[in-house]
Amino acid sequence: MHKLLVLYPYPQDERKFRPYYEEVHLPLVEKLPGIKAYRHSFSIAGAAGGSPFYCIFEAEFADADAFGAAMQSAEGAAVRADAENFATTPATVVHYDVAD
Predict the structure, then answer these.
(1) For residue 9, which of 56, 52, 57 has the smallest C-alpha distance?
(2) What's the pLDDT at 92?
(3) Is the Cβ–Cβ distance between 28 and 78 less than 8 Å?
(4) What is the CATH number of the domain that holds 78?
(5) Residue 32 contacts residue 95 (beta carbons within 8 Å)
(6) Total domain count for the chain?
(7) Helix, strand or coil, per DSSP, at residue 17
(8) CA-CA distance, 93 to 78, in Å (whole number)?
(9) For the segment 11-67, what is each residue's pLDDT rounded down to a tens digit?
(10) CA within 20 to 30 Å of 46's CA: 54, 55, 56, 83, which one?
């Protein structure tokens, strides 16, 4: 399995971020070819309490090739382009193979 993890810092306007993210951005994510599952949360806490992140997103793909194909697709381009419509500060984005 291959995972995508996106960590969003606090936005300038939380009232705009969340509805846009859930009502516009996530429907674009659902169209990614090969996506097996995804989840997100706005309830994030660090080990010592607070967190520098406002939202966390993770997605699962069969493997790195499936992830790469999704990101190179027209749908992947649409997801990347849409991020500037709600994320006022760049997110931390990582992807990785999951060990069994």
Answers:
(1) 52
(2) 96
(3) yes
(4) 3.30.70.100
(5) no
(6) 1
(7) helix
(8) 16
(9) 988 889 999 999 999 999 999 999 999 999 999 888 887 889 999 999 999 999 999
(10) 83
Q: Write down the pLDDT at residue 6.
A: 97
Q: CB of 88 within 8 A of CB of 8?
A: no
Q: What is the largest CA-CA distance in the chain?
A: 40
For residues 88 and 39, give the distance between their C-alpha atoms in angstroms, rounded to a whole number. Answer: 21
Token reading at 22: 């859930």
Q: What is the pTM of this model?
A: 0.92
Structural domain for 37, as ranges:
2-97
DSSP state of 23: I
Model pLDDT, residue 50: 82
